[in-house]
Specification:
This protein is mainly α. The chain has one domain. The chain is built from 4 helices and no strands. It is extended. It starts with a helix and ends with a helix. Keywords: Membrane, Signal, Transmembrane, Transmembrane helix.
Length: about 100
């Protein structure tokens, strides 16, 4: 049972790493060559700040929701679901054919 859970964690970790790579490939492809370094620097900085602040923010929100009984202590999951849904909606607004338009 433990090894199955370890395998699941490793699979999720590899999917997460692949998604970060894909996101940064899209960012690189969407930036003009003259500002590609700046865009990559800003995106890496944003990702690093998110990784630094995220765990503390999630823990604090979980503690607050348990202490004040907000959504039965599950407010942190509701907030993350809403943020994920918002990111999905924003992502759906991206153009479908960025590379073909750039080649025309």
């Amino acid at each position: 049972m433990v090894w199955m859970l370890v395998g699941c964690v490793l699979a999720l970790g590899s999917m997460m790493d692949s998604s970060f790579g894909a996101i940064f490939m899209y960012i690189t492809a969407s930036a003009p060559a003259s500002s590609r370094g700046t865009v990559n620097g800003i995106s890496q900085t944003t990702a690093s700040i998110s990784r630094a602040i995220g765990p503390a923010l999630a823990t604090s929100l979980f503690s607050f929701s348990v202490e004040h009984d907000v959504l039965g202590g599950y407010a942190v999951y509701a907030l993350f679901f809403l943020l994920s849904a918002l990111a999905l909606l924003i992502g759906r607004r991206l153009p479908d054919r960025v590379w073909e338009e750039a080649n025309d």
